[in-house]
Design a protein that fits this description.
Layout: E1 2-4, E2 9-11, H1 30-53, E3 71-82, E4 90-98, E5 107-113, E6 126-131, E7 145-150, H2 153-198, H3 203-223, H4 227-253, H5 262-270, H6 276-309, H7 315-354, H8 359-364, H9 366-396, H10 402-410
Antiparallel strand pairs: 1-2, 3-4, 3-6, 4-5, 6-7
Helix pairs in contact: 1-3, 1-4, 2-3, 3-4, 3-6, 4-6, 4-9, 6-7, 6-9, 6-10, 7-9
């Protein structure tokens, strides 16, 4: 069976072309050829960007901020005692047992300052400790080890296992593909984005190239190749570039320094080549990527589902029908994004409230302004992505056969 369109004939054998009938375009449609070419150009630019920005050589470490090696331990017995280390004059002395490292199995005492609630070490807690250095000519410290942090890896591991089991149980093969795409995306962030920024490359350029690389890897793995991925990829690319440009521009217009957190100050002190403002903009770009992909893929899937249910719908009907769904989706997604950033700024707002700072002054503070601008930039990108992706998918769907529509619809996995 063949389906004739105004551009050319599309055959059932595949979206990327078939062997029946004389056709000039590669895929059977000049429009599809143009969109595919745009994706290919962006993909080549992404690969070139990865090659140019890929970190080479060993990363220099700052001697002032050397790594602290910790080992695991478990608190077997804890008691409160009077001491002069704390303003409350209360310390907690824990008998701990080392769980790994050269001194595995050793029992020793650990003194911590009494804290609030869950910050206190209690019996049975798994913690991370580090060995106190002994310098020449000084007396040995009373405790061999000091408290570094609670050991949270077990909790994260079990939660991660629950996530994977639930994802595969509900999504099955598509859930597995989505999981592989997610892991590949995280690998790009860990192996490229973070080292490239620390090696002195522009954080803005690294974030944009890294985001495009994530899309190139994640979308085919999660959603396959076809009209839906093509429309979603181009819609995400356009809106991500818009969000990136706005983030870069308004970081300068609003005079955001990027030094509003302790982590930023630490990085600025240990990495002299690092632009904290560029790092802030890069965080906005990476933060917007996830919600953009969610919206664009959903819109493309909605268009394909409408076309499959009613094959008589053309561009106008598909665009209007999917736009109605998109309005609700974008309202919910924007709310999700805004509340995520509002939650990040909540502790700062509480501090301002306790200090009696007015709302106008609180919002003007950089710690809150960072989150406000990030939320607005991401929201604008989201709003722009919805009609753009819907239009692209509505152009492509009428040029797909019934077989291709069914394949694309079944490939949708959130």
């Amino acid at each position: 069976m063949r389906r004739r369109t105004s551009d050319a004939e599309i055959v059932d054998e595949g979206f990327w072309g078939g062997s029946h009938g004389p056709r000039l375009p590669l895929t059977g449609s000049y429009l599809v050829d143009g969109l595919v070419l745009a994706v290919v150009i962006l993909a080549i630019a992404t690969v070139v960007g990865l090659a140019l920005l890929w970190p080479h050589g060993k990363l220099g470490r700052s001697g002032q901020f050397g790594p602290i090696r910790t080992v695991g331990a478990v608190a077997e017995n804890v008691k409160s005692v009077p001491c002069a280390l704390s303003a409350s004059h209360v310390c907690r002395v824990a008998q701990i047992r080392i769980l790994d490292g050269p001194q595995k199995g050793k029992q020793t005492l650990l003194t911590t300052v009494a804290a609030v609630g869950s910050l206190d070490v209690s019996q049975g807690d798994r913690i991370r400790v580090y060995k106190n250095p002994v310098t020449a000519g000084s007396s040995r410290p009373s405790d061999t080890y000091s408290f570094a942090d609670f050991d949270r890896r077990g909790a994260m591991l079990w939660l991660g296992i629950g996530f994977v089991v639930l994802l595969i149980a509900t999504g099955r093969f598509h859930g597995l593909r989505a999981l592989i795409g997610l892991l590949a995306s995280l690998a790009i962030v860990i192996k490229f984005v973070v080292p490239a920024i620390l090696h002195g490359s522009s954080p803005f350029a690294v974030a944009v190239v890294g985001a495009f690389a994530v899309m190139l890897v994640m979308m085919p793995l999660s959603y396959g190749l076809g009209a839906k991925s093509l429309a979603a990829w181009l819609g995400t690319a356009v809106s991500l570039l818009l969000a990136a440009g706005l983030a870069y521009a308004f970081a300068h217009i609003a005079h955001l320094s990027g030094a509003s957190s302790d982590e930023s100050v630490y990085l600025g002190a240990s990495q002299s080549r690092l632009s904290l403002q560029g790092l802030l903009v890069a965080g906005m770009v990476i933060g917007a990527l996830g919600v953009l992909v969610d919206l664009t893929v959903s819109q493309a899937s909605t268009v394909i589902a409408l076309r499959r249910v009613n094959p008589s719908l053309g561009f106008g009907g598909l665009f209007r029908g999917a736009l109605e769904v998109g309005h609700d989706h974008i309202a919910a997604t924007v709310a999700t994004l805004v509340f995520a950033y509002a939650g990040a700024a909540l502790p700062v707002l509480l501090i301002f409230s306790v200090g009696g700072t007015s709302f106008a002054d609180a919002v003007n503070g950089e710690a809150v302004a960072d989150e406000v601008i990030a939320a607005l930039v991401g929201s604008i990108g989201l709003i722009a992505s919805m009609p753009a992706t819907t239009a692209l998918a509505a152009l492509l769907a009428p040029r797909m056969s019934d077989k291709q529509l069914a394949t694309a619809e079944h490939a949708h996995a959130h």
